[in-house]
Amino acid sequence: MTENEGKGFRILVTFCVMFLFWLLLSGIFERLYITAGVICSLIVAVISHDLFVVGKRNKTIVRSFRVLMYIPWELWQIVLANLDVAYRVLHPKMPIDPLIVEFDTSLRSDFALVTLANSITLTPGTITIDIRKGRFWVHAIAKEPAEALTVDGTMQQKVADAYMEW
Amino acid sequence: MLEVIVILVLALGVFFLFVGAIGLLRFPDFYTRLHATGKCDTLGVGLVILGLLIYHLFYYSDTLLVCVKLLFLILFILISNPTATYALMKAAYKTGVVPWKLGDERR
Amino acid sequence: MIEIELFQKIFLAVGLLIAVTILLCIYRAVVGPGVFNVVVAVNVIGTKTIALLVLIGYYFERPMFFDIALLYAMLNFIGTLIFAKYLERGEVCSR
């Protein structure tokens, strides 16, 4: 299907990213090291270009911009999650009551599912267990975070906005 | 002023690392222990490295490429720790480890 | 701006506190009924080691330790994933 079309595009993108990473890690701009970097990046790009970029997508730049706008909300949720866990750990009575819930989403592409699974793991009180064709199994540590995930639906709406998959 | 910020961020990072270790010892079941470490450990290490990054920006400000390397390290830990947590939890669920309900004994 | 010597003492104190948390995790790695608790404890010790490596890099003023920390983060992640895959399926490569 997209085996041989766009092959040059994929090799070019992989080569650029690998060479940028080489320059970032070494920080030396002399002739010998840059030549070695170009040769190594070329070998890596030719061998594994189809693992890195998965087919041509349309609207990639708009999509990455919207993902960048989703990240600050995510960082605020990480801080809230950690304060919640600290409260449950340090309380003398340890108020936990674990249960497992399942729910359905309407996202279908790989990137969106992985982002939603990571976000569920980093929000207060829930961890993903399994994903199968848009159906999530989630382990929650008390009743309130489980309700906030399934009944509310803010997080799924935000991920769907970031990847434009209403 | 700057040293107060660095000490504050480092102290917060070490506090969250302590909470993660205490949670690992105190919780009664495997799934709940993963809750404690998967969230607290990530933020604790992220805050410690962030504090050192602020220290580097003001005391050694002629090698700024190292700051980008440390920022990449923080980003990698923020993505890889939840993924490893999810993989371990899926393996335990498929193999048949039974979750803990309120009123059982510790396992 | 205070001198760097005071910051050396602060880094030493923080490094000792992180070492104490690693000692707390070793209890769960030794006891810990079943293999899953041991794997979680080893992953947590590896993550705390990354923070300790960056701290040591600033204490001894050698910038080589940041590259070692980056490499160890990747090794720790891949090691935990391979353990999880083996415990779930009973084999690592399925052909």
Q: Termini separation of chain B (Å)?
A: 48 Å
Q: What's the SSE pattern of chain A? A: HHHEHEEHH
Q: Round the mean pLDDT of chain B to the nearest integer and report it.
A: 91
Biggest protein-protein contact in the assembly: B-C, 50 and 45 residues
> In percent, how much strand structure appears in the residues of chain A?
5-15%
Proportion of beta-strand residues of chain B? under 5%
Output the strand order for the largest sheet of chain A.
1-3-2
What is the rounded distance between the termini of chain A?
A: 26 Å
**Helix and strand sequence of chain B:** HHH
Number of domains of chain B: 1
How would you classify the helix and strand content of chain B by structural class? mainly alpha
What's the count of strands of chain A? 3
Q: What summary fits the major beta sheet of chain B?
A: none
Rg of chain A (CA only): 21 Å
Low-confidence stretches of chain B: none
| Secondary structure: number of strands of chain B | 0
Number of helices, counting only DSSP H or I runs of 4 residues or more of chain B: 3
Shape of chain B: elongated
Helix count of chain A equals: 6
Shape of chain A: elongated
List the helices and strands and how they pair.
The complex is a heterotrimer of chains A (166), B (107) and C (95).
Chain A: H1 7-26, H2 31-47, H3 60-90, E1 99-104, H4 110-121, E2 126-132, E3 135-140, H5 143-152, H6 154-163
Antiparallel strand pairs in A: 1-3, 2-3
Chain B: H1 2-26, H2 30-59, H3 65-95
Helix pairs in contact in B: 1-2, 2-3
Chain C: H1 4-30, H2 35-59, H3 64-89
Helix pairs in contact in C: 1-2, 2-3
